[in-house]
């Protein structure tokens, strides 16, 4: 009488699965190109693959890696573009600090000087809102006027306000003044007063600038460029 034997069993489907039974880890060492999970190819001589495969689909990370291997020039170029963009963004953001309008509340002559310095920065950046807060916060039409004035000038033109020199602030009866200069030549002063516990430009000087449609420092650049002579500010034209 023949002894009944159980038919041979195939490989245990549970082998190779983790505790959740949902993932297979493939570890392959190949001397040539190797096909994984229904067509995905890892090219190269000696390949090591230890990526997690979900069912028959290779993860997005592995696909990206395979694309980079298959297209090394494109991948390298893309990396350079991304890196360059990151560096450029970091530099551009760091090179132009925002206008600090809180300086108007600083007491004494340092507060007056810092107010004038931030006014120059506002003109370079074309920041009409900050300029008006620094110079004449009580004028509701200031921002509209100065937006137009700044927009009429290119960035390279506004950058020239940095060529205007500032002297040490001096105390005067009405408040303080800061001397302005161009290449060592005196160009008058910026006169400031204190109102409501803060610094701002002398009202009459502000009125003249608004009438001319010019900034405190841009009026000097205008005069140097023979585009406009605004009141007390005169620059040599030679």
Notes on the structure:
The protein is an alpha+beta fold. Helices cover 39% and strands 21% of the residues. It has helices spanning 60-70, 72-95, 108-125, 128-135, 142-151, 155-158, 203-212, 218-224, and strands at residues 24-25, 28-30, 34-36, 40-42, 47-49, 52-54, 57-58, 164-172, 175-182, 185-195, 198-201. It has a four-stranded antiparallel beta sheet with strand order 8-9-10-11. It has a three-stranded antiparallel beta sheet with strand order 1-6-7. Helix 1 crosses helix 2. The longest helix has 24 residues, at 72-95. It is elongated. Residues 16-31, 33-58, 78-94 and 234-238 have low confidence and may be disordered.
List keywords for this structure.
238 residues, alpha+beta, 4-stranded antiparallel beta sheet, 3-stranded antiparallel beta sheet, disordered C terminus
Category by helix and strand content: alpha+beta
Low-confidence stretches: 16-31, 33-58, 78-94, 234-238
Strand content: 15-25%
Strand arrangement, major sheet: 8-9-10-11
Fraction in helix: 25-40%
Order of helices and strands: EEEEEEEHHHHHHEEEEHH
Overall geometry: elongated
Characterize the biggest β-sheet: 4 strands, antiparallel
Q: Report the span from N to C terminus.
A: 125 Å
Number of helices: 8
Radius of gyration using CA atoms only = 35 Å
Mean pLDDT across the residues is: 73
Total count of strands: 11
């Amino acid at each position: 009488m023949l002894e009944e034997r159980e038919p041979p069993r195939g490989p245990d489907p549970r082998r190779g699965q983790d505790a959740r039974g949902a993932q297979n880890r493939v570890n392959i060492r190949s001397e040539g190109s190797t096909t994984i999970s229904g067509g995905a190819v890892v090219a190269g001589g000696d390949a090591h693959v230890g990526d997690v495969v979900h069912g028959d689909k290779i993860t997005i990370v592995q696909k990206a890696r395979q694309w980079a291997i298959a297209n090394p020039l494109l991948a390298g170029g893309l990396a350079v573009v991304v890196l360059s963009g990151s560096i450029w963004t970091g530099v551009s953001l760091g090179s132009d600090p925002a206008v600090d309008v809180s300086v108007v509340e600083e007491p004494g002559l340092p507060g007056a000087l810092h107010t004038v310095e931030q006014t120059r920065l506002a003109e370079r950046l074309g920041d009409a809102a900050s300029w008006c807060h620094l110079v004449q916060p009580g004028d509701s039409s200031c921002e509209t006027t100065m937006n137009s004035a700044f927009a009429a000038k290119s960035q390279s033109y506004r950058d020239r306000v940095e060529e205007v020199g500032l002297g040490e602030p001096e105390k005067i009866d009405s408040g303080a003044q800061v001397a302005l200069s161009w290449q060592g030549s005196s160009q008058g002063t910026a006169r400031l007063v204190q109102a409501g516990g803060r610094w701002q430009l002398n009202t009459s000087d502000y009125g003249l600038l608004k009438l001319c449609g010019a900034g405190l420092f841009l009026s000097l650049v205008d005069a140097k460029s023979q585009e406009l002579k605004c009141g007390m500010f005169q620059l040599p034209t030679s």
